[in-house]
């Protein structure tokens, strides 16, 4: 299993601390659900599918912003400016956070979503790298974005 650079984990921790205070309860729940569901999608269908899924069910512009942004604050602002619903924001932020993390890790360098999808179809190593990052996202979402107790 690949390891993730400490600075990427630090960025993710900062991101989830911010999200835990900034997101509404229903938005946090949908992001947490995406963080728990997406690794299975990656294993069965691959990174290209996961990233296209987040853009199609979320918002392409917000997901693509993960390729150029340096902070989760910018991602949330974009999602709010675009007036995304609770389900859409979960998908969009998940995709954007994943891309922001992979870029910081040095695994991707594209700035356009279409170029990333094209390249990822030809790069099977990206699946393994993405899985490692997605596992961190999942655990941090579970830790920081509390589930509603019934």
Offer a concise description of the structure.
This protein has 150 residues and is mainly α.
Question: How would you characterize the overall build of this protein?
Answer:
The relative contact order is 0.22. 75% of the residues lie in helices and 0% in strands. The chain is globular. It has helices at 6-22, 25-45, 47-57, 60-65, 72-81, 86-105, 113-120, 125-144. Helix 1 packs across helix 8, helix 2 packs across helix 6 (86-105) and helix 2 (25-45) packs antiparallel against helix 8.
Question: What CATH architecture would you give?
Answer: Orthogonal Bundle
CATH class division: Mainly Alpha
**H and E order:** HHHHHHHH
Helix/strand class: mainly alpha
Which band does the percent of strand residues land in? under 5%
Helix content: over 70%
Task: Give me some keywords for this one.
Peroxidase, domain 1; 0% strand; 150 residues; mainly alpha
Can you lay out the helices and strands and say which pair or pack?
Blueprint (H helix, E strand, L loop, with lengths): L5 H17 L2 H21 L1 H11 L2 H6 L6 H10 L4 H20 L7 H8 L4 H20 L6
Helix pairs in contact: 1-6, 1-8, 2-3, 2-6, 2-8, 3-6, 3-7, 5-6, 6-8
């Amino acid at each position: 299993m690949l390891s993730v650079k400490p600075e990427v984990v630090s960025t993710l921790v900062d991101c989830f601390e911010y999200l835990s205070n900034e997101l509404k309860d229903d938005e946090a729940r949908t992001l947490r659900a995406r963080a728990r569901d997406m690794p299975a999608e990656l294993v069965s269908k691959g990174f290209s599918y996961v990233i296209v899924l987040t853009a199609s069910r979320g918002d392409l512009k917000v997901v693509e912003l993960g390729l150029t942004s340096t902070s989760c604050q910018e991602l949330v602002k974009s999602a709010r400016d675009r007036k995304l619903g609770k389900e859409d924001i979960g998908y969009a932020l998940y995709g954007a956070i994943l891309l922001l993390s992979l870029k910081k890790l040095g695994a991707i360098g594209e700035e356009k979503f279409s170029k990333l999808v094209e390249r990822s179809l030809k790069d099977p190593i990206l699946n393994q790298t993405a899985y490692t990052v997605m596992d961190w996202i999942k655990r941090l979402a579970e830790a920081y974005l509390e589930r509603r107790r019934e």
